[in-house]
């Protein structure tokens, strides 16, 4: 049932909001007219939606940012403080309903990126962002259903799904829920069915059950296999509830492992995640997205499942400052439970960029490196709370601290050629500070339009230090930084790298795409650099430079490699082992040279082009 809503900016207090006037708004949504408001109230009225076969009416809200209270006919029904977790409100008996939902800006440190200046104000309006609808159900019914896969790689007979269900009933109940788990689509393997007892004198009961899975079919990232899924259905009386999941394992040990196999990660960061962005990430040859310091909308998580893209889900915590560790642990456990059903769910980050940037504007000379080391040494961060929060997550690997070198981050953010130095400083940064295995952010900014007017989070001063020119020069510089850093990290066998970021949120930014999805020059450059099997120059500068094949596949490959320097072409045959790095030749390069490299396995041809600069 669709609902009509009205909204108003309000001053938060302990009472139900009573604004002098309301105006029509779309819910779910982020009404731009309330940008900058500390709290926004939303009101809807409707008649009893139930018919004679229904006993329960539920209001379902998803993405209620950030602290939420719900009133029904003047009575406070519930409060909620984790917008990534769905809110399902059982409505009392009534012929007519007046619902008031108040959403407040964060009352703690867990507003994430939306509590910073990295996103435009209109994207941060307190509200119901993702979903708002009514459900009517018979009695008894399964009002909530969640599932968490438990996969055994050593013994397929021990693979199971942990099922949790919430039952609503008006009468004492002694019955059984019928559970069925069946492959979705053409997935191989048979279905399973079982029954779980529910017995209660209460209106609400929780049921937990472990359901074995026979002959499991596993879910894989798109560059490694199929995206097999299963549908779990729970039937109680005349009521049925379902959820889709997938079977996989994820671990981290000197690299991400999915289903026990190494998966070199080539990722992108999303600042304002959409379903379209997941497909764009695949087009850029990425196999992971990191949703930075915010919750992931359900449809985006489902798109990751569909497209075979791993999901690194951050806690909504960003920027310097202490935070309540107990509150963080509670949110982390709830975040884990919310996304655990998604087979794409692969990692959790806790504290994003916990210290202020300390090296902006430093160059690449000897004195600048000394200054960098001094500033890094003076910067400190106590990761005790972040580590404690991370321990509340038990289904996927965690990266408690994501930030710059110098604070011993679990995931480093490295910006040579942008915030400091140039791209040739990357090996020094990695060796000096012991980083470079997990790189949670790298890149450079660029204009998305010729005349940018609104660019939240974009460092224009940094941009102007590097770029002397307009749109084309800006995007060309960004593309060069992206390519050089990505290819250098891959040559170093970095097991997990994530570019910052996929798409802008304003007229300029770190995105490889403009805010409307239009490609910047760097998008194709990253796509080339992220090809699973690619041939690259060790350094795109004058001098003797090696031609190197990067092969991020688990099988040995027989390859033909070709290089063309100003029309002078050579070719060679090479065999490269699993996840191999092989030098296949050397070129003597001069400024102004045009170089085209190509590699093929007989079926697919991958090219890489360079213009050698001074």
From TrEMBL:
<dbReference type="InterPro" id="IPR008979">
    <property type="entry name" value="Galactose-bd-like_sf"/>
</dbReference>
<dbReference type="InterPro" id="IPR051913">
    <property type="entry name" value="GH2_Domain-Containing"/>
</dbReference>
<feature type="compositionally biased region" description="Low complexity">
    <location>
        <begin position="18"/>
        <end position="28"/>
    </location>
</feature>
<dbReference type="Pfam" id="PF00703">
    <property type="entry name" value="Glyco_hydro_2"/>
</dbReference>
<dbReference type="InterPro" id="IPR006102">
    <property type="entry name" value="Ig-like_GH2"/>
</dbReference>
<feature type="region of interest" description="Disordered">
    <location>
        <begin position="1"/>
        <end position="30"/>
    </location>
</feature>
<dbReference type="GO" id="GO:0004553">
    <property type="term" value="F:hydrolase activity, hydrolyzing O-glycosyl compounds"/>
</dbReference>
<keyword id="KW-0326">Glycosidase</keyword>
<feature type="domain" description="Glycoside hydrolase family 2 immunoglobulin-like beta-sandwich">
    <location>
        <begin position="148"/>
        <end position="248"/>
    </location>
</feature>
<dbReference type="InterPro" id="IPR013783">
    <property type="entry name" value="Ig-like_fold"/>
</dbReference>
<dbReference type="GO" id="GO:0005975">
    <property type="term" value="P:carbohydrate metabolic process"/>
</dbReference>
<dbReference type="InterPro" id="IPR017853">
    <property type="entry name" value="GH"/>
</dbReference>
<keyword id="KW-0378">Hydrolase</keyword>
<dbReference type="InterPro" id="IPR036156">
    <property type="entry name" value="Beta-gal/glucu_dom_sf"/>
</dbReference>
<protein>
    <submittedName>
        <fullName>Hydrolase</fullName>
    </submittedName>
</protein>
């Amino acid at each position: 049932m669709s609902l009509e809503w009205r909204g108003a900016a309000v001053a938060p207090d302990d009472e139900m909001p009573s604004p002098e006037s309301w105006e029509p708004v779309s819910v779910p949504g982020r009404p731009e007219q309330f940008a900058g408001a500390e709290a926004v109230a939303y009101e809807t009225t409707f008649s009893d939606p139930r018919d004679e076969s229904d006993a329960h009416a539920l209001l379902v809200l998803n993405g209620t940012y950030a602290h939420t209270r719900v009133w029904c006919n003047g009575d406070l029904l519930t409060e909620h403080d984790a917008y990534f977790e769905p809110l399902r409100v059982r409505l009392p008996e009534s012929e007519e309903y007046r619902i008031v939902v108040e959403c407040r800006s964060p009352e703690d440190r867990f507003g994430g990126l939306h509590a910073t200046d990295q996103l435009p104000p209109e994207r941060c309006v307190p509200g119901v962002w993702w979903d708002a609808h009514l459900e009517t159900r018979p009695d008894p019914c399964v009002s909530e259903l969640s599932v968490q896969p438990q996969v055994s790689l050593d013994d397929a007979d021990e693979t199971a799904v942990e099922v949790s269900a919430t039952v609503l009933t008006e009468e004492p109940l002694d019955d059984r829920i019928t559970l069925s788990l069946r492959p979705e689509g053409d997935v191989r393997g048979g279905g399973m069915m079982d029954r779980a007892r529910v017995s209660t004198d209460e209106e609400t009961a929780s049921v937990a059950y472990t359901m074995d899975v026979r002959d499991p079919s596993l879910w894989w990232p798109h560059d490694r296999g199929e995206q097999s899924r299963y549908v779990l259905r729970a039937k109680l009386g005349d009521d049925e509830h379902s959820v889709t999941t997938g079977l996989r394992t994820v671990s981290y040990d000197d690299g991400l492992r999915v289903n026990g196999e190494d998966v070199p990660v080539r990722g992108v960061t999303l600042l304002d995640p959409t379903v379209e962005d997941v497909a764009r990430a695949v087009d850029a040859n990425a196999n992971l997205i990191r949703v930075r310091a915010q919750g992931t909308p359900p449809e985006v998580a489902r798109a990751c499942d569909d497209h075979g893209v791993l999901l690194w889900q951050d806690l909504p915590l960003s920027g310097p400052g202490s935070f309540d560790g107990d509150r963080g642990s509670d949110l982390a456990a709830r975040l884990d439970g919310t996304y655990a059903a998604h087979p794409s769910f692969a990692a959790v980050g806790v504290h994003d960029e916990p210290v202020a940037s300390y090296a902006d504007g430093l160059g690449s000379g000897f004195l600048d490196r000394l200054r960098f080391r001094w500033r890094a040494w003076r910067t400190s961060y106590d990761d005790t709370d972040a580590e404690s929060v991370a321990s509340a997550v038990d289904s996927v690997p965690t990266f408690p601290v994501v930030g710059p070198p110098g604070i011993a981050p679990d995931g480093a953010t490295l910006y040579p050629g942008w915030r400091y130095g140039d791209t040739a400083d990357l090996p020094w940064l990695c060796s000096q500070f012991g980083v470079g295995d997990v790189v949670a952010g790298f890149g450079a900014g660029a204009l998305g339009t010729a005349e940018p007017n609104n660019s939240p989070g974009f460092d224009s001063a940094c941009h102007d230090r590097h770029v002397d020119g307009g749109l084309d020069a800006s995007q060309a510089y960004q593309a060069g930084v992206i390519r050089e850093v990505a290819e250098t990290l891959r040559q170093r066998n970095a097991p997990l790298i994530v570019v910052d970021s996929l798409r802008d949120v304003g007229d300029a930014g770190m995105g490889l795409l403009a805010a409307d999805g239009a490609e910047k020059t760097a998008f194709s450059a990253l796509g080339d650099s992220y090809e699973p099997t690619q041939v690259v120059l060790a350094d795109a500068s004058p001098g003797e430079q090696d031609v190197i094949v990067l092969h991020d596949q688990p099988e040995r490959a027989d390859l033909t490699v070709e290089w063309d320097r100003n029309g002078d072409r050579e070719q060679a045959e090479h065999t490269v082992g699993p996840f191999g790095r092989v030098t296949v030749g050397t070129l003597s390069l001069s400024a102004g040279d045009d170089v085209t490299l190509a590699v093929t396995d007989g079926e697919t041809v991958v090219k890489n082009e360079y213009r050698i600069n001074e």
